[in-house]
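Slack export, channel: ligand-projects

TW: morning all. Re-posting the request from yesterday since it got buried. We need the structure predicted with the small molecule present, not the apo form. The ligand is magnesium ion; the SMILES is in the block with the sequence. No rush, but it would help planning for next week.
GE: picking it up
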Amino acid sequence: MAFSILLKLVKRGAEADIYLTTWNGRKSILKIRKRKDYRNELLDNRIRTLRTIREAKMISEVKSFGVSTPLVYFVDQKKCEIFLQFVPGKLARDLPNGTIIKICKEIGRIVGTLHKNGIMHGDLTTSNFILARERLVIMDFGLAQKTEKVEDHAIDLRLFKEVLNSAHVNIVSKSWESFLLGYQKIVGRTRMERVISQVSVIEKRGRYANVV
Ligand SMILES: Nc1ncnc2c1ncn2[C@@H]1O[C@H](COP(=O)(O)OP(=O)(O)O)[C@@H](O)[C@H]1O
Ligand SMILES: [Mg+2]
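GE: finished. pasting the full token output, ligand included:
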């Protein structure tokens, strides 16, 4: 197939394969949600279609309140494929420690803006942010949800904190502090404190679960 010659596998993920390709002459990322053989076929199709549509919708919605995301070039619902604008830059995960600490404030602002507009990201890791020409771009919205709940927003923060703890262990407290500064700027002190206290609740629950 001539088309496939233009595909270069970037990442084989648990949920999707990511290819570098072109779309109408523009450099593009093709995200294909793969069939899972262990799942019932009907259910599997439904999950993959839902996440594909959700990702495309959320990306566009989030843009409307000023958060940088890749453009969606094309969505093929049937094949569970999305063509996205290729964003050149480095993953936040791979930046030097000092830079990570600094951009955590911007990550906090972005997450605060999502939450303020009633959107939970659902997969907040440092691999889902690209630093492109001084601009931080957030991606991977397949698990995003519309929710205003403190509990749901706390799940986002808890995951991000866990990612700092596992992938950026030497800079956890500085990055977390920086993240919260940015987050507070957007959602305000009272809301931030409510979310953080819910993060503590989740953490305690986790600890007890480990003990039992
Ligand atoms: N629009 C894009 N521009 C550049 N790189 C991208 C883009 N989308 C995804 N990638 C790369 O592919 C990786 C996985 O994409 P992502 O959408 O996060 O899927 P996954 O569900 O596998 O995490 C990202 O961490 C990034 O390295
Ligand atoms: Mg990702």
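GE: first-pass observations. The mean pLDDT is 94. The two ends are 55 Å apart (CA to CA).
TW: perfect, thank you
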